[in-house]
Write a structure and sequence with these properties.
about 375 residues; alpha/beta; 2 domains; 10 helices
Length: about 375
Amino acid sequence: MAASGDQIVYYYLAWYIILPTIYMALMTVYANRFQFWTMSGEVARAFRELRELRDRGLSRYESYISSATQDAAARSRLRSLLDLFAVYPVDLDPVGIVGKLKHLMDNYERKFKAEASAALGTEDPVPVGRTVGYAEAAAALNTLYKVVDHFLWLANKYSSLGLLQQLYAVMPLFLKQGRAFLGFMDALDSGAPIGDGIGPMSVGLLMRGLQKFDIAPDTSAALGELEGRRVLFIKAKGPANNLGNLDDAVRRAGLIYGRISAIITIDAQLRLESERSGESARGVGVAIGGLGVERFNIESQAASGGIPLYAILVKESYAEAITIMTRDLAKSVDYVHEALRSILREMVPQDGVAVVIGVGNTLGIAQ
């Protein structure tokens, strides 16, 4: 039966005016709540994956310390490394803050290694460095998990869409970081170099056949010749998980060799997503990351002595920096050597002494 004129009007009002009005009213009142529910589910799924990564990291650390020692007290001591912390020094008066930071971080590193050494019953830097690396990776995963858990609790407790949106935006980056920490454990197990070791690897290859000596704690040096110039090569001692004391090494080099013609640092650089891993760049300055203590001290020495500063960087992602070195990164060593030779020829006089520093972690890189 055909609809009457009044029925057609009612249908029109219902479908094109009344229902859209009800929909708009509901969306006005509940839009944020709908968005919160949808986004909460996505964040919860990512958080479960992060929890699995954390659990795997802690489980692997527990398995490692179980295989490293059979003594219950020693295992308990190694577990306590997960909660070892350093209190940032007071910086109300910034004068002298760098010296305080260096003192604090040196104490922290010595304490960490001393605890691992005492628990393992050995001073061999390789197992001690592996234990320290395992503990730091497991602790970083646990801290990452707890921080996300804290803000997720706050977002759910107060139904805060703003907090949830921030978590939604950064969770993919946190998951990528968490997987990288597990990748660092893989490198510790295999004893393979990691991406951050591109600097020490580049310098270490040039130190082959030279007489090496300890120039600072956990830091090795060798005097050689490259492009007709005397070159003091400096890197952290390997093949343990080690970063060395590069600023102390440069200070000692000045005392031993007097006038230094140039300081050249070789390090990894965090790349942009649009850049290709393994690309290299040359520049000026001190290429050392971290808190900036070592960079500050080397810059101060260079400024007081009028020493030119040059840098060679190899681009890589954060995940590549702490996981097993890729083929593309390893191939960049040739470019680094070419760039280093070019700097020596162009910027260092033939009778001068250049200090070349391989900055980074020496895990898996032979001494």
